[in-house]
Amino acid sequence: MKVIKVFSFLLFFSAVLAQTATGTRIKDIAQLGGVRENQLIGYGLVTGLNGTGDDLKKVLFTRQALYNMMVRQGITINPVEFDKIKSKNVAAVMVTAALPPFAKPGSTIDVMVASIGDAVNLAGGNLLMTSLKGPDGKVYAVAQGPMTIGAFSYGGKAATIQKNHPTVGRIANGAIIEQIVPVALGKNGVLSYRLRAADFTTASHMSEAINTTFGPNTANPIDSTTVDVTIPDSFKAQPVPFIAQLESLNIKIDSNAKVVINERTGTIVMGQDVRLSTVAVSHGNLSITIKEAADVVQPNPLAPGETVVIPQSTVSITEDDGELMVVKEGVSISAVADALNALGATPRDLIAIFQAIKAAGAMQGELVVL
Questions:
Q1: Residue 74 to residues 68, 69, 87, 303: CA-CA distances in angstroms?
Q2: Where are the domains of the chain?
Q3: pLDDT beyond 80 at 157
Q4: Collapsed DSSP state (helix, strand, coil) of residue 92
Q5: Is the pLDDT of residue 106 over 60?
Q6: Which CATH number fits domain 24-35+184-251: 3.30.379, 3.30.1360, 3.40.50, 2.30.30?
Q7: Given 41, 170, 235, 256, which residue has the most CB atoms within 10 angstroms?
């Protein structure tokens, strides 16, 4: 019951915050069209491992990459003799990074390094120069340097101990940007904003706030996701100050009423606009208890026979009384939470109750099951 009361308090506290908040900044709910990150990827080699790298006899792409790397460094190796190398200090990895918008050549970004062979630990490894390409096949950054793993894995033939994930690492500021991705900011004097959560009401509120601040017809909602903003003449030469002022405006957001439940974890999240029609709810629990005990039967002293262990099982069934309770129409999320808490149900019971209420048509909102 204490868990449910805490759950009710959290819901009520969230509702109070939502009702008393002055608004949400535009920059927190929308993003400027075309201003986004770009994903980069590359194939590389990690060296310097302490015998925890790929098995060159089994992982052919690691052996081939190592051979090609040595050839580029001017080292001539007979391919037949190269097959005899038994090094376990090298691992093939995939390197990924996110190229931020407006990034300039010479600046650095973080990279993630993940093993793709049979290496068991990348601790202590050093990533060799790796080209990071975009979807167009062009090289936008080059990564190299020692990795931070934050994990370890040690063991022998009989036992192994491991903490976290030792085959994935990170290099802070490990890649240098070589070229930029062009961004057309304010093309044709229009900024196109995309709402992260599509909603016609929010788009309308956003347009009203912008037009009130910068003048009529500055913003035009295109649909539930897009709001086009015309840059005023006084800001066309320098649109950045205009964007900064625009994105700092506070607006009232709106969203669909939803109840999100996760049966695996017993989590329930209710939106502030969820309402319940008057409905009668009864919920009872069925408990089955099975107890086992061993009963030993043995013959009298000097008598023929043998000792026998006979298992004894006791099964008991207990079903709680299901009280039929009327849940009146809730005017707020706190009233809905209080009404459901009065049933004395656990979070997992509440999940079943919500599903039944939705099936009965008494929930004004969407039920999302994760």
A1: 10, 9, 20, 91
A2: 24-35+184-251, 38-177, 258-369
A3: no
A4: strand
A5: yes
A6: 3.30.1360
A7: 235
